[in-house]
Amino acid sequence: MPLPGRNLMAGPMTETATIEKPAQHSSATSLIDIVFPGDTNHHGTLFGGTGLALMDRVAFIAATRFGRAPFVTASCERIDFRQPARIGHIVEFTARPVKAGRRSLTVEVEMAAETIVGRQRHTCTRGIFNMVAIPEGANAALYALPELISAEAPKTSDAVGMVEIVFPNQANSVRRMFGGEAIAYMTKAAFVAASRYSGKLVVLASSERIDFSRAIEIGEIVEAEVRVERVGCSSMSIETKLWSEHLLTGERHITATGHFTMVAVDKDHRPVSVRDSALADVVPFEQGRS
Q1: Domain 160-265 is of which CATH architecture?
Q2: The whole model's pTM is what?
Q3: Are strands 23-25 and 235-245 parallel, antiparallel or unpaired?
């Protein structure tokens, strides 16, 4: 008995190769930086173009982590700056995929600024970036983005996580990240963690030995995971783990672990107590995100 809708005279049917579409959670990616004088205009606020560039960068990282393919920015929607980020502010750019097509991905990015003294935080702007995957290789024609699944609310943690991409100007002649650049990034992450914990200006007092177990290549993601280990009267011991992540495969390695001693200081750069303002519990962490 013939099946409904099938023409028996049409000859054999041709099978079309398809790839089952996987599912992927919409996890957030955070890029954290500090506003220095060279990044600001004559009013002492962050250049709008610099802010947009960092928003686009974190959107790219979030998109690549979601789709594990090369991405380009197709467009961004209207962006209005509500409040400025000033010299000395910590700025955090948080990106999260919100809509996925076959090869297009919509990423929402929020830019927030926070003061070091007092821990006051405000949203500077939000923006929508439309990213397009440009797959490569033999199966490029069959590529499709994973199905987007809303992620659960993240668990609260006092740990700081911040990502970046290694660019050619940060690498040596064999296309590997300078050790000094990696240490500077780890130190910046330790500064952010200590500042957020104490609510005071902090300075680096010392660093223990740092051994690099793996080279970091141009184009890889670096992620610093940081936590306050111990707290003294004015000093804080900060543990920083530096991960490297392949942009397309997602393979991750611990590249280095550092321990930094940060000291809280007042406006005259004299040590001050951190315990009167510190609110977080101090629990050392043993491993990063798998």
Answers
A1: Roll (3.10)
A2: 0.85
A3: unpaired
